[in-house]
Specification:
The chain is α+β, with helices and mostly antiparallel strands and 147 residues long. It has a single domain, classed as Nuclear Transport Factor 2, Chain: A. The chain has 3 helices and 6 strands. Strands 2-1-6-5-4-3 form a 6-stranded mixed sheet, with helices on one face. The radius of gyration is 16 Å and the shape is globular.
Length: 147
Amino acid sequence: MDHRSRREIEQDCRDLVVALAQCGDHREFALAVGLYAEECEWLRMGTLYVGRASIKDAYESLPRARVVRHMTGGTVVDVIDQDHAQGLTYYVSFAHEGQIEEKCALPLPLICPVSMGEWRDEFVRTPEGWRFERRVTTRIFERTDDC
């Protein structure tokens, strides 16, 4: 594989990481689920979700009154071959818990991050383009109080 092809794969996978964070944060769950391959897994907080339907259910079970944003950075992608890659991304997560009937007025109060962790991803090239084949979310640090 030439240098240019490797760089294109790396960038496509980095873009996928950012797109998934943004879709999830903005509750665009159908778009988020579409970024996973048909045969996919997501291990999050000790629960393994298998397949797009399971991942969709996980997203839809999130509290409706929660506003969350993930800051991503430090994504390193290791290209395995033309159709497979692995990645590691660090993230910081901020959240606000509102009331369901409340329309949150911006700006919201900034409280310490909820968590800091990493995503270990396995990417696969599909007819739809690059997709997540497997994601493992690991919280490295977690807020234990209101700071």
